[in-house]
Each structure stands twice: as C-alpha cells, then as structure tokens.
Design brief:
Layout lengths: L21 H15 L1 E4 L5 H14 L4 E7 L20 E8 L9 H6 L2 H11 L5 E2 L7 E6 L4 E5 L6 E4 L10 E4 L8 H9 L7 E3 L6 E4 L5 E4 L8 E6 L1 E2 L8 H8 L5
Antiparallel strand pairs: 1-10, 2-3, 3-5, 3-6, 4-13, 5-12, 6-11, 7-10, 7-12, 8-9, 8-11
The protein binds fe (ii) ion (FE2).
Length: 264
C-alpha cells in the first residue's frame, strides 16, 4: 500500500512540496503556525482510511501503559519553601495511557503514515526546521495516547517546542482539547496562568475533536489541557515525534515513565 493514499491529497497537496501547489500550501501552513501557534488540518486522513486507522488503534489500545501523575503547569518540581498558591505548587492531575511504537506491526497504517517522508518534510517546513528527522526512539517515535474513562491531562506547557497529533477517535464525552494561545513569555504570564488554574475561562479556546484532523501544535508557549473523559469509548490520539538531529531518542527515564520499560 502506498502511504500517500492515507492522506486527503486533494485538500492537502503535500506529496510534492518542491512544486506548486504543495509549495504555496506549506508556506500558508507555516504562516498559520507562526501567527497562531498551531496549524489545524481537518480531514487530513482520507475518508477511506480513517475507519481502518481507528480500528487499528482500537485493536492496540489494550496494550497501553497507563501513567497517573500530578504536576504543575511548567512540569517542574514543586518547591515547598514557596507558598502553597505559588504556580510551582499548584498541581494538576494527569491520567493517560500510551501504546508504544514497537507494538505496531509492519503493516500498521499509522506506522506507514509516520514513515512516509513527505509528511515529515511537510511538518518540517511548517515548523521552519531543516534538516528534519523522525525521532529514533523505539517506544516513543510514534505512539498512541489512550484516554479511557477518567483520563485527562491537566493544564501545562509542553517541554518540547512542538507536538504533532492525529485525532483518531473521540470519546463519548469530555476529552476536549483546550488551550490559551501563546501566553508563555507575556509580561502578565503568571497572572494569566493563575487565573486559568482558578477556573477562569477568559482566553480559553476549545479545539473541536474531528476524527481525521492533524494538529501541529506549539505546546511550549501555549497552555493547554485535555478535559476528563467519560464513557466506554476511549479518546485515541496518536502522537508523531520528530527531531532536528538524526538518531535522537527519548531518555531512559522518559521511556520508563510513559511506557513502563526502557527497551523493546
Ligand atoms: Fe501537552
């Protein structure tokens, strides 16, 4: 199977980026990303492939390793010498599972999409990264986030500059992706983050979950969360990881945390 058939190339001409219309399209996405801190591509997966990709993820979800944690919005250590209401000490809850990359078979559609060079090259162009590589991590290169009932990801800024995710299956309820665009580094960043943690909704944007959407997201500057999921159908969201140098991997500590093991 040619991985290009997984992508809605009629709407997203990314197979040939050196010539038109791919070149102009990638430029447009790059501007969108720079302006808004994210680039949303609805119906990125072709209609014919979406169901098959969702079924594949459903079949693998039972292999997810689940991780429950409490963290502050900056994913840093708490500091008990500071007041209880200091941002460093205000903890959010996260409960999410992840299916590791090494569990995907050679015929996995998701794996074939991830390994398709034009996708990598397109994302590199949007992010303004060249050269650009797939992550070389045996577990975390491309994984599937699984939010079962009670699953959530509390407010935080990502450690990594950008994240690429694919919306595959919406849950029965909850699981909304909410974000407050580009507040990291603002003069009143701390006040804004504090207000959001208090439950104030000012500036909060919800990105509707439409299966088949590819999201390129600058999560290091934008505060974001996934609200608590309800119902028996899990929220399934593959995460595609890239790097600016070849041969990059996650640390053993990160692998242990997210997949419960350090090797294949
Ligand atoms: Fe995040």
């Amino acid at each position: 199977m040619n991985p290009s058939s997984l992508v809605n190339l009629g709407r997203y001409p990314i197979a040939k980026l050196a010539c038109e219309p791919g070149k102009s399209f990638a430029e447009k996405c790059k501007h969108e990303y720079q302006r808004n801190g994210l680039c949303v591509l609805p119906e990125f997966i072709s209609t014919d492939s979406l169901e098959a990709m969702a079924q594949e993820a459903q079949a693998m979800q039972r292999h997810a390793y689940f991780c429950k944690s409490r963290h502050n919005a900056y994913l840093t250590e708490t500091d008990l010498t500071l007041p209880e209401d200091d941002l460093r000490n205000r903890c959010e809850e996260t409960y999410v599972g992840s299916v590791a990359y090494d569990l995907m078979g050679a015929n996995s559609l998701l794996k074939q999409l991830y390994q398709w060079d034009p996708l990598k090259d397109f994302i590199g162009l949007v992010l303004g990264k060249y050269p650009f590589y797939r992550l070389d991590d045996p577990l975390g290169a491309c994984s599937i986030n699984v939010f079962v009932e009670g699953g959530e990801h509390g407010w935080h800024f990502d450690e990594s500059e950008y994240t690429v995710t694919l919306m595959l299956q919406a849950p029965e309820s909850g699981g909304a992706f909410e974000y407050v665009p580009q507040i990291r580094g603002c003069v009143d960043e701390k006040e804004k983050v504090g207000r959001i943690l208090d439950g104030n909704r000012e500036g909060v944007v919800e990105l509707s979950f439409n299966a088949g959407t590819l999201l390129i997201f600058g999560g290091n500057r934008t505060l974001h969360r996934v609200t608590r999921v309800g119902g028996t159908r899990p929220r399934l969201v593959p995460v595609l990881c890239f790097a600016e140098e070849s041969g990059q991997t996650n640390s053993a500590a990160v692998r242990q945390l997210f997949w419960g093991r350090t090797g294949v």
